[in-house]
Each structure stands twice: as structure tokens, then as C-alpha cells.
Amino acid sequence: MEETRLILAGAALNQTPLDWEANLLNIRSAIIEASTRNVDILLLPELCITGYGCEDMFLHPWFAEETFEKLLQVKEWCDNMTVCLGVHVIIGQDVFNTACVIKNKEILGFTAKQFLARDGIHYEPRWFTPWPANVVEEFEVKGKRYPIGDIVYEEKGVKYAFEICEDAWRTNRPAERHMPKGVQLILNPSASHFALSKTDLRHRLVVEASQKYQCAYLYANLLGNESGRVIFDGEVLIAQNGKLIRRNELLCFKDVDLECAEVCFGPNPEITETIEYLPPIDENAELIAALSLALFDYMRKSRSRGFVLSLSGGADSSCCAVAVAEMVRRGVDSLGVTGFVTKARMFSLQDAEYFESLPQEHVVKELVGRMLTCAYQGTVNSSDATYTSAKELAESVGAVFYDWTIDDEVRGYTSKIEGALKRELTWEQDDVTLQNIQARVRAPAIWMLANIKNALLLATSNRSEAAVGYATMDGDTAGSISPIAGIDKAFIRQFLIWMQEELGYLGLDYVNNLQPTAELRPSSENQTDEKDLMPYEILNMIERLAWYDRLSPQQVIDQLEKEKVAPVKSIKGYVHKFYTLWSRNQWKRERYAPGFHLDDYNLDPRSWLRYPILSGGFREELGKLK
Ligand SMILES: Nc1ncnc2c1ncn2[C@@H]1O[C@H](COP(=O)(O)OP(=O)(O)OC[C@H]2O[C@@H]([n+]3cccc(C(=O)O)c3)[C@H](O)[C@@H]2O)[C@@H](O)[C@H]1O
Ligand SMILES: Nc1ncnc2c1ncn2[C@@H]1O[C@H](COP(=O)(O)OP(=O)(O)OP(=O)(O)O)[C@@H](O)[C@H]1O
Ligand SMILES: NC(=O)CC[C@H](N)C(=O)O
């Protein structure tokens, strides 16, 4: 075969389920940009016309018909270029997740996904039918017939074929069958969710495949918080014969992020432009990038006007506060003041002019002032230390800060119940009730602020608390989103130190010197979370062994004993407590506000970990512990 050169491009798109207008606009922008760069083949992500997260909408026949109409619209934009994009099609009772290839305004065919994603957050077999290897058929839409299946295409004599996201993650991946057919280029339209450190795995799948199958590999992922919980990092990769040619910056605030490169095909292709393999990953840097983008997308896509937060000065609420501040900083950095203000959809024209007139050093703080409102809601049990921590942090990032006490409300409810029961409530007899009423009366006022501002109320629950139900329902769980519900407490604490030291959030100095405490019991008791529960490190270890590694209670104990994390007697007590609280509190996990998937593991019952609300609570297994 003669040497051929193709300009390949992949574009990450920030799509939204069912938002035809915005999704098509992004697709069109990518095609226009590719055309100005003389691209031969443009790859767009999986299911990008509809959005990946349409869930049961994929089962609606009318929805597939509407999607096909939009595809025909896109077809007309694809002049002098080949465009490949993810779209679902319905044939009889079956729905297929496909990559459609359009060249010069003609649809050449649809390649259907062979391996459906079914682990963790993915439930594709609920909607889609897998396609058998090596089979090509035809189907008809509006009197026109199209090929569908395991198709090999050709561009200027270069043979190419697809793997659609999960296809590449299986040992029996389609690439195994593409190679003997002479395929020199594999395209992978993806919707691969973000998780800490996952990009390394993805790099290996792409680069190693290009080495093993001696081909070029073009990969394009979705971008942003598409549908509420799941975040996509917008990764675009181009590799050939084991060498990486292009990689983009992940988790950017753009709608379209296109990368392209000229790739040479032939017996001994010349690979002139290679880039270094992925540098070591810093999970803290990844976390803040993902969290910032997730918050921004959630806010603008839900058409909310900023965030409201009950700020205790403790680690969880402080983490939420700096995440919003960093969202603004990164957004302005990436889009410029005008771009950020416009995209946020919450500012008037006069606002925009005002922000543009500000000196650069003031603009982020002023924007935070408009986008984040915090309130400290003290009680007689609150300390000066947490008040100072909350105030200093809010002021240092520029957030609006209110403070008030809730003792009157606590007293009001307590005396009502005392009147009804005709007895006094005491800490000896009514400990948890007296704690919960404080957490609960903080909810109405903070919700009022959120209503007034049309803002999102941030709930501050973390994964460690969620595991054991260490929160008051309709109290500190109140909120519309739970940004850090997927992150464990130990990670949050070290992350806040990193945010202070590496990103300069000096207002975190106070919280970084506090012990986590609910401050719900009288201060003389020196309540701390770890005294109530167990050391967070151990709680997290048990949680991971139980639910990620799927061990039994006894196996968890054996593992902890092997690692000598605590005296043998304490380990048994901790494991007993964990499983008992875990089972009792499934209903609470069902009621948390939606949280983001940041780790490749989650307790969220609606998208990762299913567990019954009512259960035997491991009574037999715990009774038999050795
Ligand atoms: N299976 C089930 N399905 C549905 N509902 C169920 C249920 N089991 C109990 N319930 C209901 O749950 C209620 C108890 O739940 P809830 O009222 O939330 O209270 P509860 O879980 O009993 O106690 C809350 C715990 O969270 C701690 N906390 C509270 C606030 C803040 C913080 C902090 O870290 O800052 C910690 C507090 O120290 C205490 O240990 C019961 O009264 C009952 O109505
Ligand atoms: N004094 C307070 N003022 C305002 N909000 C509070 C106050 N105390 C508690 N809260 C709210 O209740 C939530 C739960 O408290 P919790 O103690 O679990 O978290 P935290 O105080 O942020 O962190 P830490 O557990 O590290 O102290 C807080 O994040 C905050 O939203
Ligand atoms: N959309 C998909 O097929 C995603 C599944 C794949 N394992 C991933 O996480 O990247």
C-alpha cells in the first residue's frame, strides 16, 4: 500500500440529555472547526446527539425517530469530510448504540456496539441490544436502507473500523477481529465517566491497542457534567503504533474541545510528532478540576443562580465553599470574564459590563460574592473556633456571609414536645433527639435563602457519613445537590490541606487545624465524629473492603487484623458497628440529594450500589464473628 496521510480530529462535546438545540450547536461548531482545519475524519463522542444519559428515554420509539431526524440534519453539514458520531437507532424491538459514519452528506453506515457497559454506574443492557461480531445487516428508515453492524470503512485507501467505548475495555475487543481484516485505524466514540486516576487506564487501552494491533487509534470522550451525577473529562487521544501523538487538556469549561493531527499510513508509517506519555496523576488536582466543572455545569444546566451553603467552619462545608470559589477562578481562567459571565446564565448585561470593568485581581472575588451565600447558624454548643473558621473562610473567598443563632427555634420545638409529653427532655434520656433538632432547625432558614436567590442549596454529606447514616435526615442532609457525597472524609481532610498549600486558599488554615465535630452535644462533652463512630481511616477501610472488594464481615475482620490497624478487640467492635449502622441507614442513602461521581466507586443507590432498604442487617454473620 502507498503512503497516505489523513488529518484526524476528535472533539469532546459538553452535551445535555434531550437538549437538541445545544447539542446540535456543539456538533455543528465541531464540524465547522474541523472543516477550517482540513480534517479528513472527525470523530464525535458516543450518543452525542441525544446525550449519553437519556436513561429510559432510549426505550421510547418516538425519541429514536426524532433522533434520526436530527441525524439527517447533521448529515447536511458534513460536506467534504467524514464525520463519525454516536447515535442510537431502533430496529423492531431492539435499540442499538451505534457510531454513524457520514461522508459528503451521505450516511455510509452504522457500527453497533458489541459490548454493553454494565458495571458501576452503567446500565446499558437495560436499553440496548449488543451486536454480534462480524455480522452486517441492513435496516430501513423512511424508505431508505442503511448498512448496520461490524462494518469496515475506507478513507483514501485507509481501512478503518470502530470500538465503541466499553468495546475497548473487554479482552475479546473488536480490535482483535479488525486487525486480520487489514484495519489501520480504529475510532472510539466514548462516554467514559470520570473517576480519579482513570485517565491512566484509558491511555493504556488506547496506546497499547495501537501497539498491539499496529494501527492508529482515535478516541473522543464526552465532556462535563452531562446529566447531574456523572462527569466526563472530555479526553481526546490520537495514537499510532504504541506512540501517543495528541492529548488534550482534560475537564475544560469549553463546549467543544477539538484536537487534530496529521497521521501517516503505509507499511512503515513515519510518526514524527509524538508526545510524552501521561505525567504522574495528582488526584487532588483532578478532584478540584472535576468538582469545579461539575458544579458549573449543574448550575447553568439547571438554570440556577448560584449556591447557598450552611457553613459550619468544619471540613465538609468548607470543602463545598472552596469548590465554588475555585469553580469561579477556573471558569474565568478558561473562558475569560465575558465568557464565564455569559455561560453562567445568571447575570444581566449591566452585570457583565460591570465585571468586565473590574481589575483582574478583584473580579473572581466579586463573582464569588454573587454566586455563593453562606450562613453560620450557631447554637449554645457552637465554639468560637468554628465561627472564626467559617467567617474567615467565607471572607477570604469573597462569599456573602451571614451569621445567626438557632437557639430560639431549638427551644421552641423542644418546649412544644415537652408540653405534649409532659416531661423535660434531657441529654441522659434524649441524646440523639436533642442533637437532631439542632441540625434540623438549620434547614428551613437556609432553604429560604436558596429559594429567594433561586440558588442551589449545597448539602455537605460525605461518603463516610453516608456509609453509617451519621447525619440528620432533613437537617444537615437538606439540599439540592451533594457535591462531595462520593468522597470519603479522610480524602477530604488531606484535600483541604492541599487546597491551602498548593492553590493558596489561606482561609482554610482554621479548618485544617480543627477536629471534625458535629457540635451538637453540650461543649463540655467535647463531641467528635471519631469518638461517636470510629477513626475515619478505619471506617473507610471497612467500607471499601465490604462494598468495593465485596468481602463478608468475617473476611473484613481478617483483613484488618492482617493489616494490624487496631487492637483485635476494637476491630471486631468497629466492624459490628459499621454493618449495623450500614443496614439501618440504607433509607437515608436513598434520600440524599444527587451527588457527583468522582471516584470509581460510590454508595449512591440510584447509580452504583444497590442494597435493600429493609434487611436482616447481617445479624447472623455478626453473631458468628470470631
Ligand atoms: N428503615 C427505615 N426507613 C425509614 N425511616 C427510618 C428507618 N429507620 C429509621 N427511620 C426513621 O429515621 C429516624 C432517625 O433518623 P434521623 O432523624 O436522621 O436520626 P438518627 O439517624 O437516629 O441520628 C442521627 C445521627 O447523626 C449524627 N449527626 C447528626 C447531625 C449532624 C452530624 C454531623 O456529622 O455534623 C451528625 C447524630 O449524632 C446521630 O448519631 C427515625 O426517627 C425514623 O423515623
Ligand atoms: N454552626 C453551624 N452553622 C452552619 N451550619 C452548620 C453548623 N453546624 C453544622 N452545620 C451544617 O451541618 C453540616 C454537617 O455538619 P458536619 O459536622 O458533618 O460537617 P462539617 O461541620 O462541615 O465538618 P466536620 O464534620 O469536619 O466538622 C455542616 O457541613 C453544615 O452544613
Ligand atoms: N460508555 C461506556 O461504554 C463506558 C464504559 C467504560 N468501561 C468506561 O468506563 O469508560
Describe the protein in words.
The chain is an alpha/beta fold and 626 residues long. It folds into two domains: 4-281, 4-Layer Sandwich (Nitrilase/N-carbamoyl-D-aminoacid amidohydrolase); 285-529 and 588-598, 3-Layer(aba) Sandwich (Rossmann fold), CATH 3.40.50. The chain is built from 19 helices and 20 strands. It has helices spanning 20-36, 61-75, 175-178, 198-212, 283-301, 315-344, 349-357, 360-371, 384-397, 407-421, 427-453, 463-468, 489-503, 529-532, 536-547, 553-562, 568-584, 586-591, 619-623; strands at 4-13, 41-43, 82-91, 94-103, 106-112, 136-141, 144-149, 153-155, 158-162, 185-189, 216-220, 223-225, 231-233, 236-240, 243-247, 256-265, 307-310, 372-378, 400-405, 456-458. The strands form five sheets. The protein has a six-stranded mixed β-sheet. Strands 8-9-10-11-14-15 form a six-stranded mixed β-sheet, covered by helices on one side. A four-stranded parallel β-sheet has the order 19-18-17-20, with helices on both faces.
Specify the overall morphology. globular
Helical amount: 40-55%
The CATH architecture of the largest domain can be given as 4-Layer Sandwich
Bound ligands, named by name, code or SMILES:
nicotinic acid adenine dinucleotide, adenosine-5'-triphosphate, glutamine
State the CATH topology of the largest domain.
Nitrilase/N-carbamoyl-D-aminoacid amidohydrolase
N→C terminal distance = 69 Å
Give a count of the beta strands, DSSP E runs of length 2 or more: 20
Number of helices: 19
Indicate the CATH class of the largest domain.
Answer: Alpha Beta
**What is the spatial order of strands in the main beta sheet?**
5-4-3-2-1-16
